[in-house]
Amino acid sequence: YTYDDYKKIVEYSMTLFEQNDLPKPTSFRAGGWMADLHTIKAVQDAGIMIDSSGKIKSNTGKLFPDNWNIDPRCGPFHPSHKDKNNCNLNNDSRISIMEIPNNGGDSYRYTVEEMNARFDMNFENKAPLTIPKSVVYLSHPEYGPTTEFPKILSLIHISEPTRLLSTSYAVFCL
Question: Which residues are 99's β-sheet partners?
């Protein structure tokens, strides 16, 4: 789709919210992480302030081309006008929407060890933080308590020492 196509889709969805007496949304996440720069700019121009479609590179199979490749150390950032994966704040002009990426992985596709490694990348030596950080994980609880929940519980366990040593800590919404 083009920017104009996405803009029409987003404008129509906003009218559905209004027609159903729902508040105007302030955040967005593209299904299947399929957002491109046209999508992100269209939702931004509709007044959306936060996008959570971004993620680290993964093998999503042939059905979903994976055009996200965010560094696991990237926390919330304003994407570049030219590259939605660019979280380096020292170059390029930025769009105003805040990208809050899934930089920790998801409990369906990744092992506990892989997700723990992404946590450690962001909280080196579990030392007090000098800048704000976040690690976002995704879980699909409908895939079963025997596969998903143990992984999430492991992540909660590793975050506890970080919370105790710093003013920042992990928040888990299950």
Answer: 51, 77
- 148 near 140, Cβ under 8 Å? yes
Name residues whose C-beta falls within 8 Å of residue 155's C-beta, 6 or more positions apart in sequence.
Answer: 104, 112, 115, 116, 119, 137, 170, 172
Q: What is the pLDDT of residues 24-80, one digit of tens each?
A: 999 999 887 788 999 999 999 999 999 999 888 876 555 666 688 888 888 888 998
The whole-angstrom separation of Cα 73 and Cα 63 is 27
User: How open is the CA angle 148-26-138, to the nearest 5 degrees?
Assistant: 10
Distance CA 69, CA 150 (A): 27
> How do 105-106 and 137-138 pair as beta strands?
parallel
**DSSP strand pairing (27-28 vs 98-99):** unpaired
Q: Whole-model pTM?
A: 0.81
In eight-state DSSP terms, residue 72 is: T
Task: Kindly compute the dihedral angle of the four CA atoms of residues 150, 110, 125, 100, in this order, to the nearest 10 degrees.
Answer: -100
